Amino acid sequence: MSDELHEVFWQHQGDLMNSLGYSKSGEAVFPITDSRSTPQKNVNPVSAQVESVATVSGVQPSLPVIPSINQGELQLFHDYSGIDMLSQLPEVAGFYALLNRMRTAVREKDLAWVDYEELVLYASVCFWMIRKLEYGFAARAFTQIQKGNAPLKVLDVGCGVVPLCNWMAQQSHQVTAIDPVQAHMEFAQRHLNDFYGTEITYDTIRSEQLPYPDTSFDVVTCISVLEHIPPGNDALALLEIARVLKPDGHLILTFDVSPETPLLAGEKALETNQRRFRYPFTQAAAQQLFERLHSLFNFVPQTITDSLNSLTWEHVHQFWSRTRHHDGRTEPLREYLAAGIVMQRTHVKTSESPAAVATALLHGQAAIEQQSDFFEHHAGVRLQVINQLAEETARLQRALSEEKDRPVTTALDESGKTKPTGLPENALAELIIETRNNRKQFEKLLAVRQTTEAKIEQYNDEKKALEAEANVAQLKLAETQAALTANNQYIERLQHEISIERQRSAIQGKEWAQQMRAHQETLATLQQENQTIHLALAGKEAAFTETRNRLAYLQKEIEEAKQAAAARETASQHLVTKLNQQVHDLRKETGKLNQELAKSQAATNTAHSLSEAFQRTIQEQARTFEMQQEAHSRAFENMNLIADARLRVIEEQQAALQAYRRWSLKGRVKNFLAPQLGVLYQHPPQPMEIPAKYLKTSPPRKAPSISIVTPSYNQGGFIERTIQSVLSQEYPDLEYIIQDGASKDETMQVVEKYAGQLKHYESVRDNGQTHALNLGFRHAEGEIMAYLNSDDLLLPGALNYVGDYFAKHPNVDVVYGHRIIVDEYDQEVGRWVMPPHDNKALSWADYIPQETLFWRRSAWEKAGGTMDESFRFAMDWDLLLRLRDAGVRMRRLPRFLGAFRIHPHQKTSAQISDIGNQEMTRLRERCAGRAVSPDEIRSQLRPYLIKHILVRRLRLDNFL
Predict the structure, then answer these.
(1) For helices 90-108 and 129-146, what crossing angle results, to 10°?
(2) Average pLDDT score over residue span 210-228
(3) Phi, psi at 412, each rounded to 5°
(4) pLDDT tens-digit profile of 866-910?
(5) Is 899 helix (H, G, I), strand (E, B) or coil?
(6) Of the candidates 869, 687, 884, which has an alpha carbon nearest to the alpha carbon of residue 771?
(7) Are the beta carbons of 793 and 725 closer than 8 angstroms?
(8) Are 106 and 114 in contact (CB under 8 A)?
(9) What does the pLDDT look like over 919-939, one tens digit per residue?
(10) What is the per-residue burial (b if ≥16 Cβ within 10 Å, else e) of 933-953?
(11) Residue 513 φ/ψ, nearest 5 degrees
């Protein structure tokens, strides 16, 4: 390359060549690079945090300093002068003794499973100085928290295969460890509990969507995980952690940090998205994140800002340069440090609107797309540099070839040396020297050319692979964006419905208020009438008093008259008779007054009773109004829950997009040949396609009767679709039975809409799904039997196809078919294509889709005629084993018969990790007569799964 071109090249492409590991002289170096041009190699959200120990030789800390851990203050890990003293602390030494067991097992390979790729990586990386500081911080913080406390409930987020969770479990704490990578969790579940003697619950879960109830844990540890979560999603993850933490519980958090990086020429600054995906937190990104958490956790915002503002690239490069010998590394310097903080949960309830959640998820998607665009551009620039190098090499080669082909005649001079004929002696010497130099330069250029050609070929291959991946990623991105748009539209519609419902509730509240005012006015009128009656009664009482006074006066006069009559009895006889008559009249009038007084008192009592009854009516109406208000509130909460469920679809699509972009060609080939039986999420949601011929299936001429039982409990959101999938079959001789376990939601309102088309239905308390099935089968009289869960579906034409097969094959007792997997919106996310039936494989695993299973009543009676109620999860596998042992004949039909639904509240997802595993182990041991190992299970199932792969990928079975 000419000097001129060399200078121009390094002027424009120097940053790129530095990032590729070359200096201006062409020699390989370990550069201090821009963190954007040298992305971290930690691709997996958890796998990047495991590193290994090496002893610091010849380096003694001058001033050992172990910073104290103050709750709520950010600690930056950049000083390792006290690492020897830190490692000797009991809590840190105990953890690293546990960690060293793993490293020793990996080095000596004394266990069959120590060649697991991620375990080998973790055993190397966990002992790097930066990770030693992080895990030392976490171990010390946890030791401070647990002092004086009873056993704690701990959640270890993003655990990978790092044994921090095992160390906590060994101290008698109840630990749950989660990680989004299923392979890590399966490996840990199979090996690490036995290796460390612990009992940890391992779950494959994303931290942005935790399935645990509120306030479930005392402590949450999250060690170097946040930087591997897309921006936006990191805030959702911390909000979920806050939700499951108890008030006054603690979060032990560490994450990677770096200084602000100056913008390159033409580069735009980040706005809302303050951090690129899988890059460390800058001061701005950390501040933005922690501002959202300030009300939920106790911490000091000022310490976060001060610590990160003081961080410089000199700190970062000096740390990694000085620790290279300790870590035993040879690759370029890393571009980050780490920081840790211990925060205590406040008593503030977490709340996040659906719109805020959707915005956060969109920020995460934008960051993922931004990273993809950056690497695509990076590959293009790299290819351009390679083409320039190739052109320059070709030019130099042509020039050298022309120089070699130029004819030169030589002769001997007096000293016997050769010289060109006709040239001066000094020109001859210069030409010889130039020729020698040209030959050396040619040899160098030839070597450079060979290296460059190899690189050109390599980079051309990479370019093709990148272009292919970019095209596929663009298609997936378009699909995801379309799904996001649809979900956003649904959220807007849902919010509009909530607004309308609130307005309706407000109007109804106004109507109740008007009724209350009317009732109050009526009560005031009655009280006024009551007061009038009291006044009238007072007047009657006054008249009665006056009459009584008159009677007393008349009686006095009678006495006087009697005294006078004693003297003149004969003369006064007529007068006495007259007076007696008057007395009689007065007594008669007094009686009437007494009756009126009694009536007045009765009227008063009646008025009091009416007043009290009316007040009770008003109180009852007020209570009714309050109950209706509570019902509306519950309805709003349910609608919010529905909105949250819809938003989870966005998260699943994000996870699918991320997983897709992580696929290498090797991973795609592996996935193409991997068995899909047992895999629920196989691809992003897409419309379920039903072949047209399924809709044209006709029933047999003499259709056998079919009885189907659906057990149900609180599945009001799905049961109507299940019922319609059965009744729409229009099978000529169908008995459909629904056995509900006293649901508390709208299930029975839905069932009663179809009461006229059901053989039997009832809603009573039961002892679980198996008990409900036995109750339902008591009403079944069909020749063919089956059961369909209240969230699954029958595919069109399934009953006609099954009935026709049983009619034509009287020697077959049990049939089943292929399965489609759908999500809660009836979108297809996978398919199970079943190989031909294998009785031997049934002893080791139950892959038979339950919703596609049908059997004859005669086979049912041979197998005992009941479901075993000691099983809560694997009751269908137990039935199949009893049918097989009874000698019945089973066949797999080459057709999709049913759809299995997966959703957040599904029994299968909730019970597979505990009850399901226990029951499946029990059945395997029953078949084998002994305990069996996972390796033996895999070995026994391998031929069956190979048949499945052939049927699924090579279309060796006519299943469509």
Answers:
(1) 130
(2) 92
(3) -95, 135
(4) 999 999 889 999 999 999 999 999 999 999 999 999 876 665 444
(5) strand
(6) 869
(7) yes
(8) yes
(9) 899 999 999 899 999 999 999
(10) eeeebeebbeebbebbbebbe
(11) -65, -40
